[in-house]
Amino acid sequence: MRYSRLRIIFPIGLFIALFLDGSLSNVFAGHLFKYPYSSVLHLVLLWIVFAIFLDDRDDLPVGLWAALAGLVFDWYYTGIFGVYLVALPLVVYISRQIKPWLDLNFLTMLMVYIINLTIVEAFVYVWYLIGKVITSNLADFAVYTLGPTIAVNLALFVILYYPVRQLYLKAS
Fold first, then answer.
1. Which of 4, 13, 133, 148 is spaced 20 to 30 A from 122 at the CA atom?
2. Which letter does DSSP use for residue 99 in this model?
3. Alpha carbon 15 to chain centroid distance?
4. Rounded distance, CA 166 to CA 91, Å?
5. Which of 169, 150, 165 is nearest to 37 (CA)?
6. Is the backbone peptide bond immediately before 11 cis, with ω within 30 degrees of 0?
7. Minimal CA–CA distance to 73: which of 122, 133, 15, 32?
8. Cα separation of 66 and 10, whole Å?
């Protein structure tokens, strides 16, 4: 019964996170994207990191779902295929590799999430730079995009950690 509940809860939560990424960004656009700052919500990444670290048996096909979510995210939100299609499974791979070495608690997951946010945002920055979608320099990216993005997503992590953890514990 445990496996079927998590296998149902994870994709539903991923779909909700995918929907909320765009919806909340649209609703709070005046606050998130106030020139020159840009804060990007990463609820999909948050849900994926929770799944990797809260699923104690690693039975969920998180990498496959991450690729699918990345494809949908690219298709619907960015219009540039491959960015999140590659970035999200990359984060899954890295997180799965370091998971056995970590003591899983709130602070450890928080640090891993910040590192994953930085990896995804840097990957997107480099991808867009190579594709000439953006022309900003690295310092502007760090100050005006990466910093605010980490701050907003850090707050979301703190707010959502215990309810999501309880959901995973209840499902197991």
1. 13
2. G
3. 13
4. 23
5. 150
6. no
7. 15
8. 11
Q: C-alpha distances in angstroms, 99 versus 12, 13, 96, 112, 142?
A: 24, 21, 5, 9, 27
> Cβ-count burial of 167 within 10 angstroms (0-12 exposed, 13-18 middle, 19+ buried)?
middle
- The closest alpha carbon to 89, from 112, 69, 66, 65, belongs to 66
Hey, is 15 helix, strand or coil? helix
Contact 45, 66 (CB under 8 A): no
Listed in order, strand segments (DSSP E) in the chain are: none
- Alpha-carbon distance values, 7 to 11, 12, 14 (Å): 7, 9, 11
pLDDT digits 0-9 by tens, 40-63: 999 999 999 999 998 877 778 999
**104 phi and psi, to 5 degrees?**
-80, 105
Give the count of beta carbons closer than 10 Å to the beta carbon of residue 104: 11
Distance, CA of 36 to CA of 34 (rounded, Å): 6
pLDDT tens track for 129-168: 998 888 889 999 999 999 999 999 999 999 999 999 999 8
